[in-house]
Structure formats: C-alpha cells, structure tokens
Amino acid sequence: MLKEWSSYVKxxxxxxxxxxxxxxxxxxxxxxxxxxxxxxxxxxxxxEAAARDGARAASAHDDNxxxxxxxxxxxxxxxxxGGPGTDVATVKVKAKAxxxxxxxxxxxxxxxxxxxxxxxxxxxxxxxxxxP
Length: 132
Prior knowledge:
rod-shaped
C-alpha cells in the first residue's frame, strides 16, 4: 500500500492543469484591473478635451459653450460649470469614470475635475477698423 501511495505522490500528470486552474482567476482579475485603468485614463483624456472645447467656445462668445462641452464628453456623466468672463473663459468639467461591476468592489467611484482656461476673443463689433 505504501508503494502505491508513493507512486501517486511522485506522479506529475495533471499538475499543469491544476496550476492553470489555480492561476486562472488571478489572470482574469489582472485583465479586469488593466481594463479599468484604461477606462479611467480614457475618461480623464475625454474630460480634459471637453473642458478645452467648452473653454474655446466660451472664449469665442458662443452661447452654446456648455452644450459643446457636454457633447465633447459623449459617453461620460459630466457636470459643466464656469463660462466666459471679462478677460478669460474658464470651464470646469466634473466627470465620473465608468467602473467595471465586480462583486467585491461594486461601490467604487472615481470622480475627477478637469478645467481649461482660454483668453477671451474680441467680439466682431470690437474689432479694429484697420483690420476688417
């Protein structure tokens, strides 16, 4: 009986399959974490671009600057604030990054704010007569 038991202990057949089954959840979890980091990075870039687009529209005296910023951040939940001022146009975009739904970290939230400042352009009626 001891001899049969020792032959089973020394047998390595199936050990690779067992190692794969043990590592598979960690591989999937690593892939999901990488995907989540990519989603957050994408959201930051989109929010910064939306703030820049809104500030550019506000500095050009476009009344729809807020809508332009929202449309530029398509796919994200955003709150747009700020607007044109006397010297500069400042637009802040508060965004919420999409989160992968996992059982243990379902309540995780990632919110951030991106802002942009642009100098105000002269209105058409304020332009210099020498340069039509």
